[in-house]
Every structure is written in structure tokens, then in C-alpha cells.
Amino acid sequence: MTVPDSSAFGPTGPVDPEGSAAPSAPVDPAATRPAGRTAPAGGPVRLDGPWTHRDVAANGARFHIAELGEGPLVLLLHGFPQFWWTWRHQMTALADAGFRAVAMDLRGVGGSDRTPRGYDPANLALDVTGVIRSLGEPDAALVGHDLGGYLAWTAAVMRPKLVRRLVVSSMPHPRRWRSSMLSDFAQSRAGSYVWGFQRPWLPERQLLAGEAALVGSLIQDWAGPRTPEFPDEETLDVYRRAMSIPSTAHCSIEPYRWLVRSMARPDGIQFNRRMKRPVRVPTLHLHGSLDPAVRTRSSAGSGQYVEAPYRWRLFDGVGHFPHEEDPIGFSAELINWLKDPEPDR
Fold first, then answer.
1. Which residues contact 265 (CB under 8 A, 6 or more apart)?
2. Rounded to an integer, what distance in angstroms lies between the CA atom of residue 81 and that of residue 303?
3. What digits encode the pLDDT tens for the residues 164-178?
4. How are beta strands 163-169 and 140-145 bridged, if at all?
5. What is the rounded CA–CA span in Å between residue 233 and residue 37?
6. Are 95 and 68 in contact (CB under 8 A)?
7. How far is CA 21 from the centre of its chain?
8. Over the range 263-288, which residues count as b (16 or more CB within 10 Å of their CB) and which as e?
């Protein structure tokens, strides 16, 4: 295994120490707001819009969700370094198309509980399926981006009866991700931030330094050049405020630490073997052609793990965030596929 120089993960600098993960407590939005800036209504997480906010209990924790519309449930899972708000464009499009769109904050992020443990993908996937049940639905179409996509793959394998359809953006199947990170130097170098996360405490400090400036830098670096309007400063400010909520930086990094540190441990080996089970629900796989964080070649072979209709779509000139870089095109592709009674292979 070749490990690139993890110093690619941002600069260091003096910042306030980031505490370890702990059960969530009320946070004063003013305490996490950079000086001189006005926070939007609803604070750093419960941002105003046509949606409604509430909390649901699942898998021994409390999860914040934003929901909009009525109809079949579509559960949206965000990636790093974002939170539920990344799906704002798709929520309105899905609701207008006759779906119940629900975007959840993953464990440790946004308005959800920051627990001291439970950040392995199997448990995080049980969070997702537990939310489906807490919403009173028999199943859901799962839509996941980045880490959320990794968990969507996992949930479809672990609880297939609860997953009606699967949509993954910017993330290979977990076995494909593992093999690419270990054997493909280009992907290993592209994912150098994952290796950098393995150091104790320093990555958290880096994420929070300079009012979470690195969060904005990562989003800018991973976005494609085709859409200069994304990300704008207002959008970056929202993500930086959300990461600045106490313990969020630590909890956001913990899943990536598990993914690497467990590779040679029994729990990681068992998880990798478990993911040999094929995905047996219709799957739509979306990817940006210029994604610098997850290479197209790494994702493209994921269809071998799907024993159901599988559709691959590449967004030309788009980077790691197709749902935000091309929200109209992404939403159209998503909704057309969800409404297709016979999705093609």
C-alpha cells in the first residue's frame, strides 16, 4: 500500500482545541458564528426554507431532518464536509415531482447527536434505516453523496427490504473504494485527505483553523471548473459555520478513521466480506467527469456488485458535487429515474 504525503490536508495553525465527541447539547449559534457576520434565520443548521425541521429517534440516537412534500419517501444522505442543506435544490424538485423528500444530518453532524462512538459504516447505515422506520415508511429510495453514498451502498446490502431504490453520487461501492485506495496510486493520492485524517487531533484543528477556512478550500478544490457560480461565498460560509459547531469536526472525521484503521482488524475484514453480498435493488450511479477527490475510474466498476438494473451516468465537466454544481441536470436525472417503472441495466 502506498500512502501519499498526508500534509496535503491543509495548513496547521493555532486554534482553539477541538473537544472529543460527546452527546449533543444546545449550542448558541452566536458562539459558532464568525465575528462580523450575520447568521441566517434558524442558526447554522436549521436554515429557513419551504421545508420543515424536526428530530427523530433511531438506533439509540436523535437525528435532525428537514422534510418537504408528500408521496413516496426519498431519503437524502450528505457527504463530507457538508450537512443536510447540500440537498436544498433536490428537496424542492422532488417535492414538486410528488415525492416526500427528507434530508437527514448524519450522526455527529449538523443538528444530530454527537455520540462518543458508533461511526463505523455498519452502525451509520443502521442509523439510516432506523430513520426510515421512525418516519413510518415501509421503505425509501436512498440518495447518497460521498460518505452518504458509502452508507447508502451499505444500507442496501444490510437492509434490502427497507431500500426501494438506490442512488449514489461521487462514491464507489465500498469494496471498490477499498481496493482503489490500496492498489491505485492515482486514487490513493486523490484521497490523500483520508490518509491525513488518521493523525490524532491535528485534522480537527486544521478543519477549524481560521474560522473553518479549510472547509471552504476543500469544497472549492473539489468542485469542477465548469460551474464558477458554485461555490459562492455565501454557500461556503454556511458550510463553515456548520463545521464550527463544537465536536462536529471530530465526529465528521471518525468514519474515515474507521475505514482505514479497520482494514487489517477483524471488524473491518468482516465488513468487507459482508459487502460481497450483491445489491439487489435498482441502482442509479452518478459521477462528475472531473471529480478530483474520487476518480471516475474508481467508481466505474461498481456495477459488478449490483444484481439488479444498474444505470451509470457521467456529468461532463462537473467535479465532486454534481447535485450542487448542476442542480437542474442532477434533479432531472434523479426524478426521471425514480419515476421510471422499468429502469434499464
1. none
2. 26
3. 999 999 999 999 999
4. parallel
5. 12
6. yes
7. 19
8. eeeeebeebeeebeeebebbbbbbbb
